[in-house]
Amino acid sequence: MAEVTPFPFATLDELKQRWPDFPAGADDHATVLLEDASQFILDTVPNAAMAAEATRRRIVCAVVRRAMPVPGAEAGYSSIQQAAGPFSQTMTPVNPSGDFYLTKAERKALGDGTQKAFGAQVGSLYTVQHLPWCSINFGATYCSCGADIAGAPIYEGA
């Protein structure tokens, strides 16, 4: 595969521009994740190498943002339940292990699943003349005179 430039697809500053509440002190971690997420995108959607540079940059920033834990932020939870009686609180994180993943829209933007037309030859380019006593002339699904493999009859006294 050809080298994709730039690699990683985004810089730390570009990530911070897209994430106003970027966690303080997470610069080194985010830099490593940008590189890992860029490779993840190439591994998952090989057509991403053909996508526009701005598209790759936008998507890698979104992937890293979803993967980075943000302590104390309610945006990283799928549900939060609280109770007042005996003091109960339940928080379910969206991505507890910080896995990389692409949404369906991101995959489409990167060119995954794009359809391409193609043709396939299903028959011979030439018409084969079988012997009159060839099995195929009697309704069989196979040729007994060999015309199907040689283009002309080679068995049965041809």
Explain briefly what this protein structure is:
The protein has 158 residues and is of the alpha+beta class. Helix content is 32%, strand content 8%.
Write the layout of secondary structure elements.
Elements: H1 12-18, H2 27-44, H3 53-67, E1 77-83, E2 88-93, H4 104-109, H5 147-150
Antiparallel strand pairs: 1-2
Helix pairs in contact: 2-3
Structure keywords:
158 residues, alpha+beta, 2 domains, two-stranded antiparallel sheet, 2 strands, 32% helix, 8% strand
What is the total number of structural domains?
Answer: 2
Catalogue the unreliable spans: none
Mean pLDDT: 85
Globular, elongated, flat, extended or rod-shaped: what is the shape? elongated
Q: Helices and strands, in N-to-C order?
A: HHHEEHH
Count of separate DSSP helical elements? 5
Q: Mind summarizing the main beta sheet?
A: 2 strands, antiparallel
Task: Specify the helix fraction band.
Answer: 25-40%
Describe this structure in words.
With 158 residues, this protein is of the alpha+beta class. It folds into 2 domains: 98 residues, no CATH class; 40 residues, no CATH class. Helices cover 32% and strands 8% of the residues. It is built from 5 helices and 2 strands, in the order αααββαα. The protein has a two-stranded antiparallel ribbon with strand order 1-2. Strand 1 and strand 2 form a beta hairpin. The model has no long low-confidence stretch (mean pLDDT 85).
